[in-house]
Structure formats: structure tokens, C-alpha cells
Specification:
It contains four helices and seven strands. The protein is an alpha+beta fold. The protein has one domain. The strands form three sheets. It has a three-stranded antiparallel β-sheet. Strands 4-5 form a two-stranded antiparallel ribbon. It binds iron/sulfur cluster.
């Protein structure tokens, strides 16, 4: 998930807390990209694009059918030389793009553990900002 995150590429209405989220120091990350230690969930298209560019072996399908990136030496296999090798690709995982602020699927607040981002551990005020983002569960999504 490394590289700068501003989370303002989507447009939100004035007053929505997502419009004023601070940038995180993602590149170079002072926390050794702690968020990249777990791998990430991928859409089928993202997994296929990674395999098309990098060959087999970097992504796998879990028992419950979800694609994820593999972990090697305690970091996502796509994290190399201090950065994410696919950050500028069109198939950069949507989950990484939203983390740690928003959930790629719902568009609302990222509901899982945001303290895997070391900056959230160092600056507790970020937790308050993140918790002010509306929950995705509260959105009525149109088809
Ligand atoms: S740990 Fe936090 S600051 Fe570092 S790359 Fe990940 S999201 Fe950015």
C-alpha cells in the first residue's frame, strides 16, 4: 500500500470528512511500509493483470475463493526496493488505494485494523479522523 496516500482522488461533498484527509508519509515510509506486511485482497481482474505482467506465483486464491497477493520475507511480494512495484499500474489494488481511510468495496470507512499503518500508531489523531468517515454500511448504493 506504499506510496503517497491522499485519498482525495474521489470527489466528496463539502462537509464530508473524506474531503480533508491528511496525506500520509508513504514514500519513503518511516514505518517500513508496515501496511504491506499482510498482502492484500484482489479483484479477479487485478489478479489476472498481475499474473499477466509478472507471471504466476505472486497471487493465490484462498479457500474461500478470494485472490490475494503472497507474502515473502514479511512483506507483500509486490513490495520491492522500498516501494510498491505496481503503484502506478492501472491494476493497482483498489484496497491499497483506499487504505487506511476508505473501503474499496463500500466507499465508506475502512472498517478493519488501521493500526497496521504505523502512522496511525504514531499519531492517534488520525484514528479520530478515520472514524469520522461515514460507514459504508450507512450508504444506500445505487446500481
Ligand atoms: S504504513 Fe501507513 S504511512 Fe506507511 S506506506 Fe502504509 S499507509 Fe503509508
Amino acid at each position: 500500500m506504499n506510496q503517497e496516500k491522499v485519498a482525495t482522488t474521489q470527489s466528496y461533498s463539502i462537509g464530508d470528512p473524506r474531503t480533508n484527509l491528511p496525506a500520509l508519509p508513504c514514500y519513503p515510509c518511516p514505518h517500513n511500509a508496515s501496511c504491506c506486511a499482510y498482502g492484500v485482497s484482489l479483484s479477479d481482474a487485478e489478479a489476472a493483470a498481475i499474473e499477466a505482467d509478472f507471471g504466476p506465483g505472486l497471487v493465490y486464491r484462498t479457500r474461500w475463493g478470494e485472490f490475494r497477493t503472497r507474502i515473502r520475507q514479511k512483506r507483500c511480494v509486490l513490495f520491492r526496493d522500498g516501494g510498491c512495484t505496481i503503484h502506478d499500474k492501472p491494476y493497482y489494488p483498489a484496497v491499497c488505494g483506499g487504505f487506511p481511510w476508505t473501503d474499496a468495496e463500500t466507499g465508506g470507512r475502512y472498517e478493519y485494523d488501521v493500526t497496521i499503518c504505523g502512522e496511525f500508531v504514531a499519531r492517534s489523531e488520525l484514528l479520530q479522523l478515520q472514524r469520522a468517515i461515514p460507514s459504508g454500511k450507512s450508504f444506500v448504493r445505487s446500481a
